[in-house]
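Milestone 3.1: sequence recovery, worked example.
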């Protein structure tokens, strides 16, 4: 759900994006072109290589530090990019720094997107990649994370993992997300919308189409959160999803989950994925340190 489009035209573009396949392809291509310079800059800076592939039939990108012994490393991070479940607005910017800082291979899942593929298609793709990871390594060596829509998907995958009775990953990162697609939160009511005039629930209408918004597999806040892994939640004071991230943190704490919350002063929604500034350096370092600490070697 990152603001990859200029705010002045976002409402019209978003509405057209949802109903017009040609425009949808164009907006996705524009988002990819917008990110190319940052992808290239970060790959060079963190000495990381990116390779496209598939896992369990799902398109992915393998993001690896050039100096790491990734073939021998049993650890793995699985990322879910942001973009409102409509575009890819961070599959590389969210992963390159983490792979570079930790030396851990990151598999970023190019999950099916709305409106062509509504819920639970993205969760099905995420689960397929996670199952494949479990077939090759211990759950204690796997971490999952995402930013914005990817953070929403991370929470949904955790709920699905629990429902399927699978081992939980060692750690999860919920970076500027929501676990409640039924509610317009306090910060959304006061801050300009991420996508023009549309609230997060409205923006995700095509994604959640046909599913009750309080379904615990769509909105994990309405389900049993006990047993989830250690979780780092990250947001900022000018983030439209600040309230939702805080609410999820409180709910995880009440469920007995080891959950930490980091809030950055004066920063925008998901700033670490598309801004270069001191706060981004700090946020990325914190994400990397969290996973390095929790994933078993």
């Amino acid at each position: 759900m990152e603001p990859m489009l200029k705010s002045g035209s976002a409402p019209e573009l978003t509405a057209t994006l949802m109903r017009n396949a040609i425009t949808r392809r164009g907006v996705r291509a524009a988002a990819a072109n917008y990110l190319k310079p940052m992808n290239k800059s970060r790959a060079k800076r963190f000495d990381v290589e990116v390779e496209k592939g598939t896992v369990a039939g799902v398109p992915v990108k393998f993001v690896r530090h050039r100096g790491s012994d990734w073939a021998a490393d049993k650890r793995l991070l699985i990322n879910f990019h942001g973009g409102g479940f409509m575009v890819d607005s961070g599959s590389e910017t969210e992963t390159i720094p983490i792979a570079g800082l930790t030396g851990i291979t990151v598999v970023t899942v190019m999950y099916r997107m709305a409106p062509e593929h509504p819920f639970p298609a993205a969760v099905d793709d995420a689960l397929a990649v996670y199952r494949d990871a479990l077939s090759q390594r211990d759950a204690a060596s796997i971490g999952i994370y995402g930013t914005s829509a990817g953070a929403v998907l991370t929470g949904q995958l955790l709920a699905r993992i629990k429902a399927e009775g699978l081992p939980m990953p060692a750690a999860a990162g919920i970076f500027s997300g929501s676990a409640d697609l039924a509610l317009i939160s306090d910060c959304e009511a006061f801050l300009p919308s991420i996508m023009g005039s549309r609230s997060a629930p409205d923006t995700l209408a095509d994604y959640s189409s046909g599913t009750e918004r309080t379904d615990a597999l769509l909105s994990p806040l309405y389900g049993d959160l006990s047993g989830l892994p250690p979780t780092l939640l990250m947001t900022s004071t000018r983030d439209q999803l600040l309230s939702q991230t805080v609410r999820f943190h409180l709910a995880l704490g009440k469920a007995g989950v080891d959950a930490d919350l980091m809030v950055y002063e004066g920063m925008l929604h998901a700033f670490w994925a598309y801004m270069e500034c001191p706060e981004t350096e700090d946020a990325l370092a914190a994400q990397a340190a969290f996973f390095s600490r929790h994933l078993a070697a």
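The first helix runs from residue 10 to 19. Residues 1-15 have pLDDT under 50 and may be disordered.
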